[in-house]
């Protein structure tokens, strides 16, 4: 963490959150010195992080929030976390998609951001178990008016299933639909990533649906910001070496990057060369 009076609030809070997670807690007076800002500014930052459920405030500082491995935040709660990082990841991931290909997008706020960046890629076939992702393409197709689809608009296949708090459709109905399909590229949002647990989710049914998505894809791309590193949900559904590429943001520490690249072929960080 470096002194910088010009850090945006979002950047400053990301640094604070990283420090909390790395050290297991921070004190206000330490943060004021390291970030070269006022005591009041740091307290506002901690208040904001606490409201988002990212830290727990204690006397004089903050500590990590310890969540149960079964806790599954809703879509709206997750959508306010790391919005800039998710948009950068989405923009970079969209560049991997060629016109006319068949792709799949799992549920999640990062895949939702990705869907918006794919609207101008022509003639895609999009398989998704995300109600939110499907809505992005549906609304774009209707934007021209007259009830006619835009030229080159994506063909969208939305699986059925039981809806999760993050607006993904999971369970036997979704799994059966996915098993009958084959796509060139899967973009997978995840709850947590770690070397030991691999990719994980707090939802048992979603774990099986994600396995089905991975089996039906020629190439698997995880889209997840740095805050997912070290998080472990109830159910692991894949090891890191089953992933072809992880598109993440610059907040992922260098030491972690080296560890990740020992287990998967590609680590892509916006604005940097591929590892």
UniProtKB/TrEMBL annotation:
One of its GO terms (molecular function) is DNA binding. InterPro entries: Carb_Metab_HTH_regulators, DeoR-like_C, DeoR_HTH, NagB/RpiA_transferase-like, Tscrpt_reg_HTH_DeoR_CS, WH-like_DNA-bd_sf, WH_DNA-bd_sf. Residues 9-64 form the HTH deoR-type domain. Keywords: DNA-binding, Transcription, Transcription regulation. This is DeoR/GlpR family DNA-binding transcription regulator. The lineage of its organism: Bacteria, Bacillati, Actinomycetota, Actinomycetes, Kitasatosporales.
